[in-house]
Amino acid sequence: MRYSKFPALGLLCTLLVGCTAHYPVNQPYSPADAVGAGISQPKTAETRSDSLLVGLAFSGGGTRAAAFAYGVLEVLAETYVHWEGRELRLLDEIDVISSVSGGSFTAAYYGLFGDRIFEDYADKFLYRDVEGHLTWSLLSPVSWFKLGSARYDRSDLAADYYDEILFEGKTFADLHARNGPRLNINATEIALGVQFTFDPAQFSLICSDYNKFPVSRAVTASSAVPILFSTVVLRNYAGTCPFEFPPWAKAAHASADSSSRSAHLARQMAKYADSEAKPYIHLYDGGLSDNLGVRPFINRLSMAGNSWQLAKAMGAADTHRMLVIVVNAQSELSDEFQKSDVNLSLFDAISASSSIPLNEYSFESLTLLRLAFEGLSAQIIKERCKEWAETRRSTQGCDDFKVHLVEVDFDKLPEKERRQEMKRLPTSFRLSAKEVDDLRASAREIITSSKDFQEFMRDMKGR
Q1: How far apart are CA 26 and CA 275, in angstroms?
Q2: Inter-residue contact 19 to 13 (CB < 8 Å)
Q3: Which residues make beta-bridge pairs with 322?
Q4: Would you state the pLDDT for residue 257?
Q5: Are 110 and 91 in contact (CB under 8 A)?
Q6: Which residue of 81, 92, 114, 194 has the lowest C-beta tally within 10 Å?
Q7: CA gap 195, 114 in Å, rounded
């Protein structure tokens, strides 16, 4: 339960103006609408190729991450590939975007508005002093009545502001109706210390209506840095709708191997099922559990059991090319303190204690992703050809599958000084126009010069 920060003000507000400020409560599903949790299949646009799968992961890092991700989208909007007799714009082929923190702003705006992002997003968000406005709002008497409420806090104020300047009150139903890429906006469930993904499967688990949930609140949760922001609170309705644990979770519970990733995920899922013990879910910045946004893929691979089962669950059984672009706006701690024997300042100590685990965990996540991709092609080819032989008249093309992993990060910049400059930009929601433009230019340079991206483009020309 939240308690008022300003009890006297809250009482005055109630007595004088009937103040009832409250964060929007996520709505329950009716039993007829509830579905079991599992691996949800993205809705495919009519113009999107079934045989080309494109996925993006946008990291955290405030406006630095948002601008870096935006630069990648700009490149994809200008890149065309020849595929199965058609000229396709690569941007239009994006099937899924998984995002964290600052990257979630860019992902959500593109998911909701498509190409409009290139018309107004930079002015609305990237070039705007968002941090300054939020600070001013906290100090403004206009906000005091709201903030005096026990159930309206700093993150709720931020979500309202994001709706005003960016998201226009849109919900996930609006995102689904546009038929763009599927979004995995990721936050961290603070009590369990695990990733919380805003997707139909997660909301089915807690018997809540995914479609009615505001996109602005999902992005706020994904970027709610502890202390600076409050938690974003969700109501857990688990047990009020027909729900069955998916087959993979039942198998993990029954397995003698309690140390497997699937068993770990099943235990996490089970903890949500007791809504009496856990009636509320408190969410903080997604970077605390996965600052790259790649964990949903790794987790889904564990849930499915193998690459072929995952491909079928995602509606990608006929996929022949897979492109995954990981956009990592990693930071780097300044090493100036090493030149002095004076102890670290409080600011440097806090920065180090937060940056070290984030960067190390991101490294481990990327290592896991690369390992997952190493055997992915061989496994999909083997299992697909076997299944096609049993169920189809022809197996022609079953062995045609390649996966391309492209990493877009500042370490790919050729000049050391520029790498350090980009990595040492503040993790805030306030950058100069020049810094934003430098990030966009860096993203363009990195992806266009990437050997992995160039290999993908050559591979597409051969079709």
Answers
A1: 14
A2: yes
A3: 53, 403
A4: 74
A5: no
A6: 114
A7: 27
